[in-house]
Structures are given as structure tokens and as C-alpha cells.
Amino acid sequence: xxxxxxxxxHVEMVYRPGEGEHARAFFETMGFTVTKSMAWLRIxxxxxxxGVDNVMFANEATPAQQNFDxxxxxxxxxxxxxxxxxxRQRKVGREWPYYxxxxxxxxxxxxxxxxxxxxxxEASESHPLLGDRVELVVxxxxxxxALTLHSQAFVFTDILTTNAPFSHGLQFxxxxxxxxxxxxxxxxxxxxxxxxxxxxxxxxxx
Length: 206
Known about the structure:
The chain is of the alpha+beta class. The protein contains 4 helices and 9 strands. The N and C termini lie far apart (53 Å).
């Protein structure tokens, strides 16, 4: 029997109490396949995959995390310094989303990438479950502050989180990587990514 390749098996996150359908709608709008597996949503990045590897899971936050979230929201409402620093961190994160914790998915064609981005943009404006709950920051190679030659859509939502407060939310990335025709069948290499613009001075991102 051939050895299985070493793969990223899964990542897991949580959604707000009662927002399982919001989470399902979010992932389906991004173009992923969602099924229910016991208490979890199983999100398949590649619908033709084995459903075990290259997947994400989401479940409802535990009461312990809900208590933590409520305590954080209380502190946020009463501590102006905390509120200011969080607002600043959010603004820096939108301006330079490369430096945030996030999950990234590689989209096979630019046309597919564009269709997914359009669906998300429409959903952020008018979807009954996702309206005002999804935000996009989109970069092409000629976009100011673009650091790579990829097509990148950074997607922010407060429907999901890891162990952070829900108001901090979670970030995803849909990425298309252009490959010259001469290299279409060559394996992807670490270091092949080029910078389109200068990297920022990290000391300024305060």
C-alpha cells in the first residue's frame, strides 16, 4: 500500500450560540461543501477530497467560552483604553491583513476566485444571515499595499472565532496563485512568491 502524503488534516473553530446556520451559510458562500457530523459542521475545502483531510470543523462555543466572551464584552464596554487599542488593531488588520492569524485556501483558477469574491461581496450587503457580518479586503498585484503577485481576498467575520472573543472575529483568505504557462505542471516551490510592493516598517503598525 502506498504511503499517504503528509497533509494538513483539519482546523477547528467555534460559532456563537444559535448561529450554526450562519456559519454554514458563510462557508457555503465561500464555495466550500458543508455537512453535519455529530455536533460539528464539517467543511470540505475540496468537495472531491476524502472528507477526512483538508477539512475544517466548527461547533457551538462551550458555556465556558461564552462566559469568557461575556466578561470580555463587559470589560470592553467599561475600559476605553481596551476599546481604543482593539479598534486600532482592527484597522491595522484590515490595512495589512497579511500579519493576522488566518486560514488560507488556494483557488484553482482566477475565474473561480472572482466568482467566490463576488458571492461574498453580495452576501455582505444583502444575505439574510450574513449581511453586515462579513467584510472583504481584496488585493490584486496592482492594488496599493499588495505584497505579492497573487489575487487575495481576505474575509473577516464575527460569526466564528478560535478561543478569542467573538468581537475579535476570524479571518480567512481565498488566494489565486498565477503560474506562468511554462511552469504549469511544475511543483510549487517555497520562495517562488515575489513581493509586488515594499514591505511596511513593522514599527509603524502600532
